[in-house]
Design brief:
This protein is of the alpha+beta class and 143 residues long. The protein is built from 3 helices and 7 strands; from the N terminus they run βββαββββαα. Strands 4-5-6-7 form a 4-stranded antiparallel sheet, covered by helices on one side. A hairpin with a 2-residue loop joins β6 and β7.
Amino acid sequence: MLNIKIDFDQESDGRDEIDPLGDLTISDGASTIFAGTVYLDSFLAGLISAYNQSGAAAHVAVEIMEEPHLLLIETTPEGWLSISYENRKIAPQPRQDLKAALLVAARYLLRSLPGLPGSKRNSFINPIREFVAVQSNGDVKDG
């Protein structure tokens, strides 16, 4: 089962509404991609963008703002998705597993920031809000 975990930076109080900072871990139980001290909103928005594009392409590369490496998603002939970042790779997973993990992580991030006054001005959060809204309304788009 695929898991995406968000840990807010404790030293700098990473729950900043404009620049939420922390660590993001993607794991399938056997291998792990760890992105330490990243802007959580832009990284998660990049993952959502790559997921959305992967329905129409066998190979998707997404540039994540403020990050030096590309996030890659490859689609197997069976339609499963493999995530790569910084020479680390997760084994191919069913599309719905990535969608479910993204939804859990996105909801957690949004729940962690809603009462902060500047969060509505953070444009990186908009695609995350849209992803959650679309998935929550049952208008599931897989690509």
